[in-house]
Design goal:
GO molecular function: carboxymethylenebutenolidase activity
Strand order of the largest sheet: 1-2-4-3-5-6-7-8
CATH superfamily: Alpha/Beta hydrolase fold, catalytic domain
Order of helices and strands: EEEHEHHEHEEHEH
Structural class: alpha/beta
Organism: Rhizomicrobium palustre
Protein name: Carboxymethylenebutenolidase
Distance between the termini: 25 Å
Helix content: 25-40%
Number of helices: 6
Strand content: 15-25%
Shape: globular
EC number: 3.1.1.45
Number of strands: 8
CATH architecture: 3-Layer(aba) Sandwich
Enzyme class: hydrolase
Length: 228
């Protein structure tokens, strides 16, 4: 764990380092469960692929160090409560602070990407249009359709992974986003028709190994292309 200092205070981030000790960096944007074992496992995965991987504690303004799972109803209720209280604009400021910090880490080659899941998938889009990130990837992000007015600020590549049977982000909303970006060369959208929300969450109820491997492979290729 490392500390990142902002004008509003200091928050923690989990850092995974690539075996070579050098490479681009990726900021991982959490689900609604905080910086838990799943997010740390994903960071370790990206580090093994040659990236520095940082997972900032984006709920620190509500309560630092939240670690929940998707295994009990009580934890789901707590997670939704944090999500409802989460200030998106302040969260993106913290993402920018993490991106800026990542560029100063010894061994980081300069370029920084962002990848988010669930809540983080939505934040990945906002990161793409509100920060100086070099490339962004969002997995099954919700509510992107409500923020398409900010798309004019998109200057760097964006990839989205949509779950065709996402109970939190229905197909009609996915189509709105896909149609909006259909002619934008910066945006790539992959749809997984039979998948439910969080199909790439290791150990989750909807986890699908084949589609998770496919999506993650696309993400790694995307980052190697744009952060290399």
């Amino acid at each position: 764990m490392i500390d990142i200092t902002t004008a509003d205070g200091t928050f923690s981030a989990y850092l995974a380092t690539p075996p070579s000790g050098k490479g681009p960096a990726i900021v991982l944007l959490q689900e609604i469960f905080g910086v838990n074992a799943v997010m740390r496992e994903l960071a370790d995965f990206y580090a093994a692929q040659g990236f520095f991987a940082l997972v900032p504690d984006l709920f620190w303004r509500l309560q630092p160090g939240i670690e929940l799972t998707d295994k009990t109803q009580e934890e789901w209720q707590a997670a939704f409560g944090y999500m409802q209280r989460f200030d998106t604009s302040l969260g993106i400021q913290d993402v920018q602070a993490t991106i800026t910090h990542a560029r100063t880490l010894p061994g980081v080659t300069g370029k920084v990407g962002a990848v988010g899941y669930c809540l983080g998938g939505f934040l990945a889009y906002l990161t793409a249009v509100r920060t100086d990130v070099n490339a962004s990837v969002g997995y099954y992000g919700m509510n992107i359709d409500k923020f398409l007015g900010e798309a004019a600020n998109l200057k760097k590549p964006l990839m989205l992974h949509d779950a065709g049977k996402d109970e939190f982000n229905p197909p009609e909303k996915q189509k709105l986003v896909a149609d909006f970006f259909a002619d934008n060369p910066l945006v790539t959208i992959h749809r997984y028709p039979e998948m439910g929300h969080a199909f790439a969450r290791p150990g989750g109820a909807h986890y699908d190994d084949a589609n998770a491997i496919l999506a993650n492979g696309r993400t790694i290729t995307f980052f190697k292309q744009h952060l290399g």
